[in-house]
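REQUEST ID: PR-0412
SUBMITTED BY: lab tech R.K.
PRIORITY: routine
TASK: structure prediction, single protein chain
INPUT:
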Amino acid sequence: MMEWVAFNVFLIVLVAIDLGIFSRKAHVIHVREAMIRSAIWVAVAFAFAGFMWWYQSKHAALNYINGYLVEEVLSVDNLFVMLIIFSYFQVPRNNQHRVLLWGIFGALVMRGVFIVCGVELVQRFHWLLYPLGALLVYTALKLLVSEEQYDPEHNWFLRFSRRYLPITKTYDKDHFFSRVDGRWMITPLFVVLWVINTTDLLFAIDSVPAVIGVVKPPDAFIVYSSNAFAIVGLRSLYFALAGMMDAFHFLRYGLAAILAFVGIKMLVDAWVDIPNWIVLTFVGGSLAISIGASLLFKKPEQAQPEDASLSTAGEQVETAG
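STATUS: complete
OUTPUT:
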């Protein structure tokens, strides 16, 4: 229990330092600043791997690195969804970092509960690895054959908020709540925050089992710490890649390959012991090949008509309630 408390205190201190240095005032985060922040978070994540090597063992450190890389790669898919959500709700760029910050805290709490329960169940009922592995293989196949994009309209919290919650008509700077005519109301920014949080919970259904699948034996602290470092670095990574995401059009094939590989690993776990270095090589190789192919074979430019739904999305939320 003490290692959990110490780790979360350490993480909160790091986030506070990040905020104190880079985010004292709401501002537009440009690519150069985002790249520096991303590099720092990656460096800290790998430094923690060195600590795990010293604190526990080489095996624990490799488990952590595998978990971190799998979660980091799969989190790239989250970036595309965040971009769609921010575009849909027309969130001002200088307020996006505040949404992502609080989204990180929400994701850490929800994933922490999800991970502890998941690892406990797998340790008690080893056979659960098989349906989880099958789920990952199914998700990989679905990712390959389906080009359907995420649609915020399907989010349950958005539908709930439109129906039952009092929402202001406009954004109020970077505030989540605003007082209107003596009445406290939530702002569209709060709706965006919870659309992102509830969407992240859906992504966790795939990514957490994938990390559990590469951490052997399943260890809740290793799975959580690797998830946590990937998540806290996601905010900077979003701003670093936001303008280039469309260029990585082959990335979904790399993600599908990783999900399928981990799923198959979980399915054959009882008969085949796949070493950590093979997992590490496959994850890194799949990511490198998919990014390299995206850069070598450019996506044909297509004239895309303006999507009226994006231009009116803000109004749809702002007039709700």
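NOTES: The first strand starts at residue 177 and ends at 180.
REVIEWED BY: pending
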